[in-house]
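Next up, sample data:
>
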Amino acid sequence: MITLLQLERCPWCAAARQGLANVGAEYQVVEVPRDRAQRHLVEALSGQRLVPVIVDDDTVVWDSRRIVRYLYERYGGQDRARSAAELPEDIGGVRTLGPASSG
């Protein structure tokens, strides 16, 4: 299951939630502290403190546009292929968790 690290009233997090809904993905939400200095989990996973961030198995993706592109490419099939291609891939980031990172 996908985990979304977010703030409820964040517009970029809303975009990530919409992307998840568009592909019909099941996900759980982790509400992070509003104070960026307290976002230790976000930083441990993504190397930065901004939300949204998703964790899909061992893949971590951050930045709403990058998240939506990832979701459309991975789960959207042909219906979302054109939309995925229109979203930038040079923003945000993607990383794979290694054995030491996933504990």
